[in-house]
Design goal:
- Helix content is 38%, strand content 12%.
- It has 169 residues and is of the alpha+beta class.
- It has a single domain, classed as 3-Layer(aba) Sandwich (Glutaredoxin).
- A four-stranded mixed sheet has the order 1-3-2-4, with helices on one face.
- Helix 2 links the parallel strand 2 and strand 3.
- The chain is globular, with a radius of gyration of 16 Å.
Length: 169
């Protein structure tokens, strides 16, 4: 069983306080924008809660998501928001992948990294030490990503819970 209780509370708290590292002032920009697709004013928002090491999540991304993207997201009907859900009890490399994705998000490359993590899942998912592979694949446009173990990366991972989707209209 995952021991995410204290981490879960820290993530939720940091999500609510968004600007705690910047003098306690809340951000005025959309904190989900970097890992969202579609219009922020779309009538429906779908929250995808997924694990980068999950084979079913990969299958959805590779087979279903292209149709969802073209039919609903690009047409302005749906805003799609990705929420990290690393199930570390069954996917030991999922947290490292989530950290890399969030580092990419801070550099404006979340969706490219998201797609690459799923497309190349077989290359990194079974590695004993995935961090060097994930951090130095060249999926970042500029700068060096945060170290996967850094405290600065952890509050930005997203929420933990059960895999699935939630819609809001």
């Amino acid at each position: 069983m995952d021991k995410v209780g204290p981490l879960n509370r820290a993530i939720i708290l940091s999500s609510l306080l968004l600007g705690a590292g910047r003098g306690g002032l809340a951000q005025t920009v959309d904190p989900l924008a970097a890992r969202s697709k579609g219009s922020a004013t779309a009538p429906v928002t779908v929250y995808e809660m997924a694990d980068f090491q999950c084979p079913a999540c990969r299958m959805f991304t590779v087979t279903v998501m292209p149709a969802v993207d073209s039919e609903f997201i690009r047409t302005g009907k749906v805003r799609w928001v990705f929420v990290n859900l690393p199930l570390t009890s069954i996917h030991p490399n999922a947290l490292a992948a989530a950290v890399v994705a969030m580092c990419a998000a801070r550099q404006g490359r979340f969706w490219q990294t998201h797609d690459a993590l799923y497309l190349h899942q077989d290359a990194w998912a079974r590695l004993t030490q995935p961090r060097p592979f994930l951090l130095y694949r060249g999926w970042f446009a500029r700068g060096r990503p945060l170290h996967a173990g850094s405290d600065a990366a952890r509050p930005r991972l997203g929420l933990y819970g059960a895999y699935g989707f939630a819609a809001q209209s």
